[in-house]
Amino acid sequence: MTKILLGARLPKTLITELREYCKSHGILINHFVSEAIAKKLREEKEYEEDIATIEARKKEPTINEEEWKDYLKSRDLNV
Predict the structure, then answer these.
(1) Which residues contact 33 (CB under 8 A, 6 or more apart)?
(2) Which of 44, 17, 18 minimizes the C-alpha distance to 30?
(3) Residue 71 in contact with residue 78, Cβ under 8 Å?
(4) Which of the chain's ends, N or C, has fewer CB atoms near its CB within 10 Å?
(5) Hey, where are the domains in the chain?
(6) What is the gyration radius of the CA atoms in the chain, in angstroms?
(7) Nearest 5°: phi and psi at 62?
(8) Is the pTM of this model over 0.90?
(9) How far apart are CA 55 and CA 33, in angstroms?
(10) Which of 35, 33, 38 is CA-nearest to residue 8?
(11) CA nearest neighbour of 68 among 77, 59, 60
């Protein structure tokens, strides 16, 4: 995998905390940052998919509770 240098300006306190954490856990900073970015991207994509699903479902027909109970009763399902 080709790697590209990424420069970012971060608060000094965050860098200090990152260095201490990685050192105490035997993790390379590069690995930690790469994994954190990948995780955040996955979460954001999942969030966007969830919103799209919600928006699609808003357009679907719905039934009220009484209609649902009648449906279940018609199938001999007790609630």
Answers:
(1) 18
(2) 18
(3) no
(4) N
(5) 12-74
(6) 24
(7) -130, 165
(8) no
(9) 33
(10) 33
(11) 77
